[in-house]
Amino acid sequence: ADVMSEKGSQEIQGFLNANGVEKFDVVFLFSVTMWIHLHHGDSGLENLIKTCSKLSKYILMEPQPWKHYQTAARRMRKLGLEEFPLLNELKLRGEHLEPGLLEIARNEGMTVETQFGVTKWKRKLLLLKSNPT
What we know:
By secondary structure, the chain is an alpha+beta fold. Helices cover 45% and strands 23% of the residues. The protein has a four-stranded mixed sheet with strand order 1-2-4-3, covered by helices on one side.
């Protein structure tokens, strides 16, 4: 389901309700944060983290570094396609991207439980834990 849409969020909540659970144990966000950010802006990225923090006890996230955003934009230019319209409006960018992501998570009551190292694509794997409120 598309967690970025109201319909998708309702489907997910319906699944949880039908199975008698309040939250998933873990939600995996592999190679998606950049695409959500590019297509939905800073508020979309914030909404993704907010939604996932409400739906799970943990989030295992593989955030893409800013360099990958630049590579994606360059690919679009080389293909003669329109660049991502929200790219220039993003406030979370460059060296502020990862700290900004973590700040959003903290604002949603999550803490970094551990970092599992770096993938072969040179991306960190972060385990975020939801703190009971």
